[in-house]
Amino acid sequence: MKHADRASLTPIPHLWPDDAVPLNVNGYWYAAAYATAGGGHWARTVHFYTAEAFMGRTWCRFDMSTPGVHRLDKLARRRPTT
What we know:
Elements: E1 21-25, E2 28-37, E3 43-49, E4 55-61, H1 69-78
Antiparallel strand pairs: 1-2, 2-3, 3-4
């Protein structure tokens, strides 16, 4: 098994969309796009951007004073429904 040393790694630059909201969920940082109802007042399904240009989602429970949660709710209301 071969291991790469840190000096041999080259980071790939990536820019998130301007409307991405940085959001920490259980210690992981997400470039969140919007949030939808998650089954309760504090629960949300957070839809986020991925580096591969896909949309991912994760369920989470927030303290409503968490920075960014209200902004994500507002962004969801502006999205068209399908």
